[in-house]
């Protein structure tokens, strides 16, 4: 038997539901424009450049198994950067846009899929952390909104999405300490 789920637009007329979807799209487009504009004006900090230089200057196996132990960060951000640099020859000037792409994807997941009330989604999406700290400053935690909100979405879906939830949490743990704590807490409550 299929489990019945309430959707955010279930109690709305089709016209109001389409207006709310348009509002969602408008908010996402506005926030994405703000993020991209800010990235274009942002000068990279030394720790942003450090990750890029490590990924650029080392073979993947050496970077993962030998050198990253000195950095104190999990491997996911370096694993994202390495193929972009070596296979697609993306120049350093696009580092901020790489992080912004993940951050805008995270905003889209939050606005369209996250299991939170619409007002809460809008307020969180418009916060300093999601618009600047987790999007403009190109560090490993650019991946946190995307993976965190995907994990929340799969958490809500329950057992039918357990594999996707586990994969998302495994990646979330590879971002940072606070990503790992979030993943562990979500796993503790999953069921």
Defining key terms:
disordered N terminus; 191 residues; 68% helix; mainly alpha
Structural description of this entry:
This protein is mainly α. The chain has ten helices and no strands.
Helix-strand blueprint:
Elements: H1 14-41, H2 46-57, H3 60-67, H4 76-86, H5 95-112, H6 118-125, H7 128-133, H8 144-157, H9 162-173, H10 177-189
Helix pairs in contact: 1-5, 2-4, 5-8, 8-9, 8-10, 9-10
Briefly say what this structure is.
With 191 residues, the chain is mainly α. The protein has helices at residues 14-41, 46-57, 60-67, 76-86, 95-112, 118-125, 128-133, 144-157, 162-173, 177-189. The chain has 10 helices and no strands.
The unreliable regions are: 1-7
Rounded to an integer in angstroms, the radius of gyration calculated over CA atoms is 18 Å
What is the distance, rounded to the nearest whole angstrom, between the alpha carbons of the first and last residues? Answer: 18 Å
By secondary-structure content and strand pairing, the structural class works out as mainly alpha
Mean pLDDT: 91
Q: Into which percentage range does the β-strand content fall?
A: under 5%
Q: What profile does the largest beta sheet have?
A: none
Helical residue percent band: 55-70%
**Total number of helices:** 10
What overall form do the CA principal axes indicate?
Answer: globular
Number of strand elements: 0
Could you give the order of the helices and strands? Answer: HHHHHHHHHH
């Amino acid at each position: 038997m299929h489990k019945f789920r309430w959707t955010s637009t279930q109690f709305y007329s089709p016209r109001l539901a389409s207006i709310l979807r348009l509002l969602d799209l408008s908010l996402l487009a506005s926030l994405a424009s703000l993020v991209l504009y800010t990235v274009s004006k942002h000068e990279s900090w030394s720790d942003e450049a450090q990750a890029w230089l490590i990924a650029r200057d080392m073979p993947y196996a050496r970077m993962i198994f030998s050198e990253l132990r000195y950095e104190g960060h999990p491997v996911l951000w370096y694993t994202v950067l390495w193929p972009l640099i070596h296979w697609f020859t993306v120049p350093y000037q696009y580092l901020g846009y790489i992080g912004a792409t993940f951050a805008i994807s995270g905003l889209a997941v939050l606005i369209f899929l996250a299991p939170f009330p619409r007002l809460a989604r809008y307020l969180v999406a418009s916060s300093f952390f999601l618009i600047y700290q987790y999007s403009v400053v190109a560090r490993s935690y650019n991946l946190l909104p995307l993976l965190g909100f995907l994990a929340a979405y799969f958490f809500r879906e329950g057992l039918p999405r357990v594999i996707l939830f586990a994969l998302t949490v495994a990646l979330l743990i590879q971002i940072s300490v606070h990503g790992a704590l979030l993943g562990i807490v979500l796993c503790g409550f999953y069921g």
